[in-house]
Amino acid sequence: MARVLVKVRVLPSTAEVNVEELKEKIKNAIKEFAEIYRSSITPIAFGLSALTLEVILEEKEGVMDKLEEAIMSVGNVGSIEVEGVTRI
């Protein structure tokens, strides 16, 4: 089965959220079905930073929904946005 690389932008709920800790919580939440390939932190404004994750998943039905649900289930996640999906 093919694999896909998904680029996801995660915004924390507040500027006080430690983005590195948030990344580790997300990593633990998705470890059963996905792996973080690369990550970066981008300052936005007023102390708020966005976490950009590149996640590797198996290409199968429902896996994107599962990824989004797992990320949103982690505390202190304000919103997520899928920026891109590509086969690898």
Most strands sheet:
4 strands, antiparallel
Intertermini distance: 11 Å
What is the fold-level CATH name, i.e. the topology?
A: Alpha-Beta Plaits
The average pLDDT is 95
Secondary structure tally, helices: 2
CATH superfamily grouping: Ribosomal protein S6/Translation elongation factor EF1B
What topology emerges from the helices and strands here?
Blueprint: E1 3-12, H1 19-30, E2 34-45, E3 48-58, H2 63-73, E4 77-87
Antiparallel strand pairs: 1-3, 1-4, 2-3
How would you summarize this macromolecular structure in one to three sentences?
The chain is α+β, with helices and mostly antiparallel strands and 88 residues long. 26% of the residues lie in helices and 50% in strands. It is globular, with a radius of gyration of 13 Å.
Structure notes:
- This protein has 88 residues and is an alpha+beta fold.
- It has one domain (3-87): Alpha-Beta Plaits (2-Layer Sandwich).
- It has two helices and four strands, in the order βαββαβ.
- It has a four-stranded antiparallel β-sheet with strand order 2-3-1-4, covered by helices on one side.
- β2 and β3 (48-58) form a beta hairpin.
- The relative contact order is 0.37.
